[in-house]
Structure to design on (238 residues):
C-alpha cells in the first residue's frame, strides 16, 4: 500500500508544481498534553508513553501520525518522498507530511488530533454512524481505542485485537483484548471492521479490504484515505 500512496501523492504534488520547489517539512513528536490535552480518562495509548503523535508542518499547515518510533525531522518535500519506508519512524514522517500537504491544499481538514473530551464525543458519534449505516453488525475493532470500545460494547458485539502486549489477555469493558494473530479470524467473524489508521505507520494495514465494510479511524490516515478512496471516520479532528 505504501507504493500506491506514494504514487498517488507524487501525482498530486506534480499537478501543483511542488516537486520542483525546495519546500521544507519540519516534524516533531508531541507530548501527550500537546496531542490530546487533558481528558477526564487516563487510559489512552498516548498517555502510556508507548506511542506519540508526530506532527509535520508544511507552509503553516499541520499533519499528524501516530507512531511508536518517534523523533524530530527536518528535510525537503522531495527528500520525504524519496525516503525508504523501512521503519515506523520513516513511515510516520511520510504520512504526517502527506497530511500536512493535503491540509495545506484544502483536500482534508481532520489532520490534527482532537483534545480533552472530544474522544468521548467521537465514540458516541461512531455508535450512531454505525447504527445508521450498518444496523446492528458484529464489529472487529483493530487497535484498542478505549472510548470507542466503551461505547461500542454497550450496543454491539465486538472483538478487539491490539499490538500492545500489556493489553492482550485483559478484559476491558467486558471484552477480551486479543493478539493480532486473531485478526484474520475476527475478520471472518465480523460484519464490519473498524481499523485504526495507525496500521499505516506500523505497517500492518494490508488484508482488510476483502468484501466486508472497513472503516478506518483517526487522524493518521486522513490524507492517505482520501488518496486511496477509503472510508474514513474522524469527526472531531481539527
Amino acid at each position: 500500500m505504501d507504493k500506491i500512496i506514494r504514487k498517488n501523492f507524487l501525482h498530486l504534488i506534480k499537478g501543483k508544481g511542488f516537486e520542483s520547489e525546495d519546500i521544507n517539512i519540519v516534524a516533531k513528536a508531541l507530548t501527550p498534553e500537546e496531542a490530546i490535552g487533558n481528558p477526564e480518562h487516563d487510559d489512552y495509548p498516548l498517555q502510556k508513553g508507548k506511542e506519540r503523535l508526530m506532527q509535520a508542518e508544511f507552509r503553516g499547515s499541520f499533519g499528524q501520525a501516530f507512531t511508536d518510533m518517534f523523533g524530530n525531522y527536518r528535510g525537503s518535500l522531495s527528500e520525504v518522498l524519496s525516503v525508504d519506508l523501512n521503519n515506523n519512524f520513516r513511515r510516520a514522517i511520510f504520512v504526517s507530511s502527506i497530511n500536512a500537504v493535503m491540509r495545506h491544499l484544502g483536500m482534508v481538514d481532520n489532520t490534527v488530533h482532537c483534545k480533552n473530551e472530544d474522544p468521548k464525543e467521537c465514540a458516541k458519534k461512531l455508535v450512531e454512524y454505525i447504527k445508521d449505516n450498518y444496523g446492528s453488525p458484529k464489529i472487529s475493532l483493530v487497535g484498542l481505542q478505549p472510548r470507542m470500545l466503551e461505547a461500542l460494547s454497550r450496543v454491539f458485539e465486538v472483538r478487539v485485537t491490539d499490538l500492545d502486549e500489556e493489553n492482550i489477555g485483559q478484559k476491558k469493558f467486558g471484552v477480551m483484548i486479543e493478539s493480532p494473530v486473531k485478526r484474520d479470524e475476527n475478520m471472518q467473524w465480523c460484519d464490519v471492521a473498524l481499523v485504526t489508521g495507525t496500521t499505516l505507520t506500523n505497517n500492518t494495514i494490508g488484508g482488510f479490504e476483502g468484501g466486508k465494510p472497513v472503516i478506518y479511524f483517526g487522524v493518521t490516515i486522513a490524507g492517505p484515505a482520501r488518496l486511496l478512496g477509503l472510508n474514513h471516520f474522524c469527526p472531531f479532528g481539527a
Notes: The CA atoms of residues 79 and 144 lie 33 Å apart. The chain has a mean pLDDT of 88.
